[in-house]
């Protein structure tokens, strides 16, 4: 795709440079099969980011970037234990920990979140505005990270037309459930309140009729049942972080923009 880069922010340009570097790095390294398409993912991500930047733009201000950076770091720190329990081999665990996770906030009112691959996650401004707590925001991010760690995003990218972003509708019910299960583990290890996270994993941020690719209602029921069952495997009344002053401040700033 050919893009005008007039509207690129510094942060966005950095991300593209990072992705290009990362793609060069992974092309040079000999990787396991699950990592083989990472160079292609990085390229697809960079193209889609450029397209989204041109057509919607991204929201960014310092406190938002700090919040997203902290939540993402907390979650990626939890990957090690969560991944070990899922019996990923040691190589992939190390690999996922070093993934260049980055969350972008798209200037778009429709609440949604999706993965572009190569560690890039996009959430819409509408989603961030509707998140009821930091734990809810973390749940959305953890769910997208899980899709990438489990290889779902790479698979969806292989099936998608070049340059097409990968929305939720491209995943199977089985993949959604696997991503929910892994994200609950990550949220637990990262110290978030699971009950505050739970609803955000499914319907909380999707308003009926606005989803770009609606899924059968039965899916949500089955996902909620799995989430409830997973949460029951952790000790009840476990203290966990629900929200933070930083999160409240970011939502306030967002409302004023
Ligand atoms: Zn999903």
Summarize this structure as a short list of keywords or feature phrases:
7% strand; binds zinc ion; disordered N terminus; globular; 257 residues
Write a brief caption for the model.
By secondary structure, this protein is an alpha+beta fold. 58% of the residues lie in helices and 7% in strands. The protein has helices spanning 10-28, 38-55, 62-85, 90-97, 125-130, 134-149, 152-159, 173-189, 194-198, 217-232, 245-256, and strands at 58-59, 102-106, 113-117, 120-124.
What does this structure look like?
The protein is of the alpha+beta class. Helix content is 58%, strand content 7%. The protein has one domain. It contains eleven helices and four strands. The structure holds zinc ion (ZN).
Please write out the topology.
Blueprint: H1 10-28, H2 38-55, E1 58-59, H3 62-85, H4 90-97, E2 102-106, E3 113-117, E4 120-124, H5 125-130, H6 134-149, H7 152-159, H8 173-189, H9 194-198, H10 217-232, H11 245-256
Helix pairs in contact: 1-2, 3-4, 3-8, 6-8, 8-10
The protein binds zinc ion.
Zinc ion (ZN) binds at residues 143, 147, 168, 171, 176, 179.
């Amino acid at each position: 795709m050919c893009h005008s880069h007039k509207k690129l922010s510094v942060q966005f340009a950095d991300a593209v440079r990072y992705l290009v570097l990362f793609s060069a790095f992974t092309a040079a390294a000999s990787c396991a099969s699950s990592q083989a398409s990472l160079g292609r993912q990085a390229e697809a991500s960079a193209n889609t980011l450029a397209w989204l930047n041109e057509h919607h733009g991204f929201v960014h201000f310092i406190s938002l970037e700090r919040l997203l950076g902290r939540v993402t770091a907390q979650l990626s720190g939890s990957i090690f234990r969560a991944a070990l329990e899922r019996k990923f081999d040691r190589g992939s665990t190390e690999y996922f920990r070093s993934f260049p996770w980055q969350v972008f906030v798209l200037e778009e009112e429709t609440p949604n979140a999706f993965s572009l691959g190569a560690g890039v996650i996009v959430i819409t401004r509408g989603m961030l505005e509707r998140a009821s707590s930091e734990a809810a925001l973390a749940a959305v991010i953890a769910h997208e990270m899980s899709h990438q760690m489990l290889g779902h995003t790479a698979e969806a990218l292989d099936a998608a037309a070049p340059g097409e972003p990968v929305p939720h509708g491209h995943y199977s019910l089985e993949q959604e459930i696997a991503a929910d299960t892994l994200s609950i583990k990550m949220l637990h290890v990262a110290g978030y309140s699971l009950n505050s996270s739970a609803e955000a994993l499914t319907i909380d941020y999707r308003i009926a009729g606005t989803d770009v690719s609606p899924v059968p209602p039965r899916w949500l029921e089955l996902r909620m049942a799995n989430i409830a069952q997973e949460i029951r495997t952790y000790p009840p009344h476990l203290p966990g972080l629900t929200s933070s002053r930083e999160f409240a401040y970011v939502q306030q700033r967002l409302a004023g923009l």
